[in-house]
């Protein structure tokens, strides 16, 4: 089970957890958040040793995609904000497919 998804949904940690509210993480609200409510790789002396490697690989992969492609939503495709999350899966993901066009950046300059 993906623990961070369930932690984020708990209303005792975040009021109205189903609502997207980035203001929760502003510096003035930071003191109200329990430091242990988000633990994707564990914490303490036995946390996942692959954490830094996984995070660095993710950053590199996303940077390569953004550097080489322009991402545009396909016409008539649902936006992420218009979809419900998948409720039966192990990972947090949209309940329906999201379609993007990957336009090579070298094609944009021609």
TrEMBL record:
So what does this one do? May be involved in the metabolism of insect hormones and in the breakdown of synthetic insecticides.
Necessary cofactors:
heme
GO MF term list: heme binding; iron ion binding; oxidoreductase activity, acting on paired donors, with incorporation or reduction of molecular oxygen, reduced flavin or flavoprotein as one donor, and incorporation of one atom of oxygen
Top-rank taxon, per record: Eukaryota
- EC assignment: the record states 1.14.14.1
**Lineage, highest ranks first:** Eukaryota, Metazoa, Ecdysozoa, Arthropoda, Hexapoda
Protein name listed in UniProt? unspecific monooxygenase
Spell out the reaction equation it catalyses: an organic molecule + reduced [NADPH--hemoprotein reductase] + O2 = an alcohol + oxidized [NADPH--hemoprotein reductase] + H2O + H(+)
Question: Which keywords, in A-to-Z order, does the entry hold?
Answer: Endoplasmic reticulum, Heme, Iron, Membrane, Metal-binding, Microsome, Monooxygenase, Oxidoreductase
Q: Which PROSITE patterns match?
A: CYTOCHROME_P450
Membrane protein topology class: Peripheral membrane protein
Instruction: Please name the InterPro entries in this protein's record.
Output: Cyt_P450 (IPR001128), Cyt_P450_CS (IPR017972), Cyt_P450_E_grp-IV (IPR002403), Cyt_P450_sf (IPR036396), Insect_CytP450_Detox (IPR050476)
Q: Where does heme bind?
A: 48
Which Gene3D superfamilies does the annotation name? Cytochrome P450
Q: Where, subcellularly, is it found?
A: Endoplasmic reticulum membrane; Microsome membrane
| EC category name | oxidoreductase
Similarity comment: family membership: Belongs to the cytochrome P450 family.
């Amino acid at each position: 089970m993906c623990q961070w998804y369930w932690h984020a949904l708990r209303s005792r940690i975040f009021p109205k957890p189903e609502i997207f509210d980035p203001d929760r993480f502003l510096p003035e609200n930071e003191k109200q958040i329990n430091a242990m409510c988000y633990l994707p790789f564990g914490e303490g002396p036995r946390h996942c040793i692959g954490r830094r490697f996984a995070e660095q690989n993710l950053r590199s992969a996303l940077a390569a995609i953004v550097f080489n492609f322009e991402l545009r939503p396909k016409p008539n495709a649902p936006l992420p904000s218009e979809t419900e999350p998948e409720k039966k899966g192990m990972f947090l993901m949209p309940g329906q497919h999201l379609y993007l066009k990957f336009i090579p950046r070298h094609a944009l300059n021609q």
